[in-house]
Write a structure and sequence with these properties.
Aspartate Aminotransferase, domain 2, Aspartate Aminotransferase, domain 1, binds pyridoxal-5'-phosphate
Amino acid sequence: MADFTGLLTAFRNKAPFDSTADGLQSIAKKGRFTVYMSDHEGHIAIVRAADMLNLGRNSVRRVKSKSDFTMDTAELGKMIDKDIKNGDTPFCVVAQVGSINVGAVDPLEEIAVICSERNLWFHADGACGAFGAALPEKKELFKGLEKADSVTLDPHKWMYIPYECGCILIRDQEKLRRAFSISAPYLRGTIPTEYTGIDYLEYGPQMSRDFRALKVWMSLKHYGAEGYRKLWRQNICCAEYMDKLVRESPEFEALHKPVLFIYSFRYFPNKYRIENQFLNETNVTLDQYLDQLNQNIADEIQASGVAFIMTTRIHGKVVLRMSICSHRTTPSDIKIVFDKLKQLGEEIDQRYINNQKPA
Ligand SMILES: *Cc1c(COP(=O)(O)O)cnc(C)c1O
């Protein structure tokens, strides 16, 4: 809903006609309205938001990314200019700020420049990672975030708040109001009240709304900014430790450097890399086998109760994805999880080998 709010606000403020009155049905509408995000790491929540706005899922254009999974902004500029030439109306660029698979942060400063040159809305999807901007040692990584028109962040992720609590920050309050303001006789009384603060009815999709802010406020009061910084550093330290264990072990393959608290990697027995030791009675390729092996490891570690680890795909390959996003996780937990993953990998691989042997 935070991303949806961001995209709707972007659209209301950038469409070249009164989209509040006419929606997408204005006769002034020309071409397609288009949104941009990185191809590999762009989050599906943006596609869903475009869908809910009836822009069509295809309105989200995928921009090529670099080997570090961040958006290639030269490509972004070219793509936008080409679309404009073809009669489309680009209105928003979405930067990933802590991406879902690898925690990548797009080049925010460069995206800000492209948006300001072309009068586009700069939305930062920081659902996972935007809180990292509060760490002085990560200052360089988040440079340019302060230029975003809107930033989403999920307190139910990196603030450890119970489900659910999404959040959006909008630079210009009036632009947000313009997107949602609505009135009806039954919403307004004439008796004066003492309340002069903002009426959230005018600033979001909901009329009746839950008091989600309470749990955020109480957690902030409890931990304080310094308390949170300590926990965020602990999570990052755990991701870095996992990366170290993975790189030191010949049975695992590192796929990226951890930036924040998300770390993806692959179980890849060394023997299958050194020589073509992969036993193959059926027509299974090594890549297909490794996909299945990593999926089985994730399923079995979940069933074991030791850790909840899921898989994702990176460049088409099934990999293990660790989201170290609990305030209680420490490096000793990471070691336990690593050892368990290794043990499961060996067991599952051995089971496969035994099944391949002729009876
Ligand atoms: C989690 C996430 C979202 C939104 O998903 P919710 O589960 O609804 O909070 C959007 N973008 C990114 C990058 C995310 O990680």
